[in-house]
Design goal:
Number of domains: 2
Radius of gyration: 21 Å
Number of helices: 9
Strand content: 25-35%
CATH superfamily of the largest domain: FAD/NAD(P)-binding domain
Distance between the termini: 16 Å
CATH architecture of the largest domain: 3-Layer(bba) Sandwich
CATH topology of the largest domain: FAD/NAD(P)-binding domain
Structural class: alpha+beta
Largest sheet: 10 strands, mixed
Shape: globular
Length: 410
């Protein structure tokens, strides 16, 4: 039962300082301040990218949809994202196979690739203005995954039907000017402005009748045979046939367990039109190290980079640590590529949730029939949000997805 909790989801200041995306127009959404009705088919809790894609999945199904959030839309983790939309997940395929089995690991990676393609189609079909660009990926050998490990990863991906090329040290130096022992080159990735992407999907949902209400927190919940009753911070009672918690890294308190952990990360963005190699505009780059560095360019020629993750939950709130982490990230980028960031235009830090195998938890809240959640997205928030939207919406619409069992809550 969840009704014993006075605040159903954990409160977390998800982002510190001002991300690049907060300075670019297009990331806002008009909302209501009060819920216009009391009965709905589906209530979605959370107005970030996860909630946005969830709401889109119900468009055209003749359902009454309400979305609520304690914040304004796009002001949680979505705003802090560096929006490297990859089909590669944090746990390499050959490693994931050891924990969940070969076939299940292949299904996860295949589903991830399909989700990136699905996002691309959504952006194209709705003509969303969000700086979406198809990209390739370079996964560089590092301290945790060396050339031998990357060779094994390449073979695992080929067997799974995922296109990949293993680049030698010589090829990597010749084509990219990077000094690493090996790298994997692959397609099926993208980048975007995450605030614009989230807001654009939400605005489209609003045009199709989804009610979006900000400044409302769900305080209590109780499930009956065919309905769920929610009480709000405004003193209202809401009734729905199904409820979906799209609260990302603010886990449902009732589901807190050792598989979930909140950690800290850092990111920065350079000034626009920074001098950089031509190839970088076509690639997302990350490395097989812990902590790892990742980076990409933007349409206006900035370099966005991040990493240096810290297992300490509140480390991202430390101003001194943010300065130190930003300096370390810039130095790592310079050592690897020769790119000089100079004084960054933007620096920010954030909390994010992880699980031991890098996979999210998507499904029904245990012991509840009509309450669903998706949480713990790690470094693949946007990709996993698309997967969660498809899986959960299909379940609510009574046609179970074949991959429903891939991301268990427990």
């Amino acid at each position: 039962m969840l009704d014993k909790y006075k605040s159903l989801t954990r409160r977390q200041t998800l982002c510190r300082d001002r991300p690049l995306w907060a300075s670019i127009p297009g990331g806002t959404v008009r909302t209501r301040r009060r819920t216009p009705e009391t009965e709905y088919d589906v209530i979605i809790v959370g107005a970030g990218i996860s909630g946005a894609l969830m709401s889109h999945a119900f468009i055209g199904k003749n359902l009454r949809i309400l979305m609520v959030d304690r914040r304004a839309p796009v002001q949680g983790s979505s705003l802090a994202s560096t929006a490297m939309i990859q089909h590669e997940i944090d746990t390499p395929l050959h490693v994931l196979q050891k924990s969940i089995g070969v076939r299940n690991a292949q299904r996860v990676w295949q589903r991830s690739a399909a989700a990136v393609k699905q996002l691309g189609r959504l952006v194209h079909d709705l003509d969303l203005k969000c700086a979406f660009q198809a990209k390739k990926t370079l996964f560089l050998a590092g301290e945790e995954y060396d050339a031998r490990a990357l060779s094994g990863e390449a073979e695992a991906r080929r067997i799974a039907g995922l296109g990949v090329d293993l680049l030698s040290e010589e090829t990597l130096q010749e084509r990219f000017g990077l000094n690493r022992t090996a790298a994997l080159e692959s397609a099926i990735s993208a980048s975007a402005n995450p605030a614009q992407l989230t807001a654009a999907v939400l605005r489209n949902a609003g045009k199709h009748g989804v009610e979006i209400v900000s400044g409302v927190e769900i305080k209590e919940l109780k499930e009956f045979d065919e309905s769920v009753v929610l009480s709000t911070s405004q003193g209202a009672l809401l009734v729905a046939r199904s409820v979906v918690f799209c609260t990302g890294y603010e886990f449902l308190k009732a589901l807190a367990n050792k598989r979930q952990k909140v950690v800290s990360t850092w990111a920065l963005a350079s000034r626009p039109r920074l001098s950089r190699p031509d190839w970088l505009d076509k690639y997302l780059v990350w490395e097989g190290s812990d902590p790892y560095l990742y980076f990409r360019s933007t349409a206006d020629g900035r370099i966005v980079l991040g990493g240096e993750d810290d297992d300490t939950e509140d480390a991202y709130k430390d101003e001194k640590k943010r300065k130190l982490k930003s300096k370390t990230l810039a130095e790592k980028l310079g050592d690897l590529t020769g790119i000089s960031i100079g004084e960054p235009d933007f620096e920010w830090s954030a909390a994010f949730g992880v699980t031991p195998n890098g996979l999210p938890m998507i499904g029904r809240v245990p012991n509840m029939k009509n309450v669903f959640t998706s949480m713990g997205f790690g470094g693949n928030g946007i990709t996993f949000s698309q997967i969660a939207a498809t899986l959960i919406s299909s379940e609510i619409l009574d046609h179970r997805d074949e991959d429903w069992d891939l991301f268990p809550i427990f």
